[in-house]
User: Which sequence fits this backbone?
């Protein structure tokens, strides 16, 4: 044994999530007669409690799923549009939108969870939210990643006096912030109880929504009751692309997940058979493909269907493959239209679930930055997102955001099928790195044959604007030197394991045997649970 995590399998379903308690909440739904969609909502609600720094029913997200009864992949988009009164002309750079009331986007997660359950689930909200309510009211012991996040963010949020007191009341446990310190969130428990009874209308046009809007207004926010009341999750057709013997499905634009598919399409025409795993040739080709795909996504942001088809066409992809093969250094943006400084990796979470009825789902949802906007609504236990930090407010950008327009989101929850059957659900957090690190894991798993858990554990890198690359220091120094010689401005992180390259969770199924395999990322508090 190599000292890392073992492979976990089951014939009765699987939940892979970013915290053990959340994975257990989903597994409990499966054990109690619920399906993958009930389990997804239960897992999401529990994550709101146990990783409040990156999960909230007031966040936003996307789900990609295989619906067994319909034998098809579907996408549920619960990323609302930019608030109608958002004063975009007030800003010149995204750094102005990191904290406070103005970067708060309309909450979408709760609506997404409830739409999943309404359409495909079978459990009432009272049962689905029960594990989360218990965790909030009884409390839970902080794990290592939660301690690190609270310790890191407390002094940063203290610089915002209008936000800090409400934040500290919600998230600082009695006594020291340490592993095992018990965090109780009675206000959040009461909010979840009210939602279980009154349904999502309590937020979208109801009393809870009015409370949120009033608090934001007191802090100078722009979100209105109409933004809340008008929001409805949108069902979309997935965007597919072939990779080896798989068809990989992700959300379509305005989601930016097509960068992930562009990368895979480029890599599909390259041969890794002669390359050493984690060697110079392997990593050079992957990094070059990622950078080209990122540049194309930025140049053609939110493309219409005909343009997207052209970008993914054989002719377009072959030109990009030729650029990978030519060996000349590649320089370009990986974030937004203009070069951006290296940023926080964002506070997003992803989880994957499958049930024995054949359903499979991958959800990626987020608060934006750590603890989102830093705005905690008094008496509710809700921390609000800062998703407008991901809006493009640069005055000269061709992708500049507008009030009431689409909020483009760099998420890519994926479902892969083989011969028309679902075989893999995989997603990760990590801001614009999401679109990079999922491709790296696919190459580890599909091309080099690593078991799913080992593919997630394998070293990953984060590419930044220009030629800058940071890799986990488990990549051999001579490989880093070889990559530098090929034009990558590369350095190793101080750590062998860093959340800056995501926190990936995945579930695979063998259609022949029905055996589920779960994999969870040790870079965060990820865990797998079975019913």
Assistant:
């Amino acid at each position: 044994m190599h000292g890392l995590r073992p492979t976990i399998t089951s014939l009765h379903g699987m939940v892979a999530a970013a915290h053990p308690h959340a994975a257990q909440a989903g597994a409990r739904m499966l054990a109690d007669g619920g399906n993958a969609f009930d389990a997804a909502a239960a897992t999401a609600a529990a994550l709101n409690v146990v990783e409040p720094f990156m999960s909230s029913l007031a966040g936003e997200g996307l789900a990609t799923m295989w619906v067994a009864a319909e034998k098809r992949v579907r996408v549920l988009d619960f990323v609302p549009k930019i608030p109608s009164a958002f004063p975009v002309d007030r800003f010149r750079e995204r750094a102005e939108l990191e904290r406070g009331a103005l970067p708060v986007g309309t909450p979408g997660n709760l609506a997404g969870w409830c739409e999943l359950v309404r359409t495909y689930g079978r459990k009432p909200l009272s049962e689905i939210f029960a594990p989360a309510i218990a965790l909030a009211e009884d409390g839970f012991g902080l794990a290592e990643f939660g301690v690190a996040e609270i310790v890191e963010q407390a002094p940063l949020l203290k610089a915002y006096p209008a936000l800090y007191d409400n934040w500290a009341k919600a998230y600082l446990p009695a006594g020291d912030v340490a592993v095992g310190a018990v965090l109780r969130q009675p206000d959040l428990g009461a909010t979840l109880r009210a939602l279980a009874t009154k349904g999502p209308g309590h937020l979208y046009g109801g009393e809870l929504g009015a409370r949120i809007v009033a608090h934001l207004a007191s802090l100078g926010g722009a979100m209105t009751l109409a933004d809340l009341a008008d929001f409805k999750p949108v069902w979309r057709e997935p965007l597919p692309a072939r990779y080896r013997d798989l068809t990989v499905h992700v959300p379509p634009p305005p989601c930016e997940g097509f960068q992930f598919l562009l990368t895979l399409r480029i890599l599909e025409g390259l041969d890794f058979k002669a390359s050493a795993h984690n060697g110079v040739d392997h990593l050079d080709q992957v990094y070059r493909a990622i950078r080209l795909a990122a540049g194309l996504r930025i140049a053609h942001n939110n493309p219409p269907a005909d343009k997207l088809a052209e970008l993914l066409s054989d002719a377009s992809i072959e030109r990009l493959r030729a650029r990978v093969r030519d060996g000349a250094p590649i320089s370009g943006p990986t974030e937004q239209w203009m070069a951006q400084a290296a940023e926080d990796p964002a506070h997003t979470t992803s989880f994957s679930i499958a049930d024995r009825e054949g359903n499979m789902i991958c959800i990626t949802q987020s608060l934006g930055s750590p603890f989102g906007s830093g705005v905690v609504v008094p008496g509710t236990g809700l921390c609000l997102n800062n998703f407008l930090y991901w809006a493009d407010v640069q005055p000269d950008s061709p992708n500049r955001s507008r009030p009431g327009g689409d909020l483009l989101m760099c998420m890519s929850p994926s479902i892969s099928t083989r011969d028309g059957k679902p075989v893999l659900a995989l997603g990760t957090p990590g801001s614009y790195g999401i679109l990079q690190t999922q491709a790296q894991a696919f190459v580890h798993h599909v091309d080099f044959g690593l078991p799913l858990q080992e593919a997630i554990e394998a070293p990953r890198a984060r590419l930044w604007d220009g030629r800058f690359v940071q890799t986990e220091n488990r990549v051999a120094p001579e490989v880093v030197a070889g990559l530098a010689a090929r034009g990558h401005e590369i350095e190793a992180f101080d750590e062998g394991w860093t959340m800056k390259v995501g926190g990936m969770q995945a579930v695979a199924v063998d259609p022949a045997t029905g055996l589920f395999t779960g994999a969870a990322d040790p870079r965060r508090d990820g865990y797998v649970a079975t019913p």
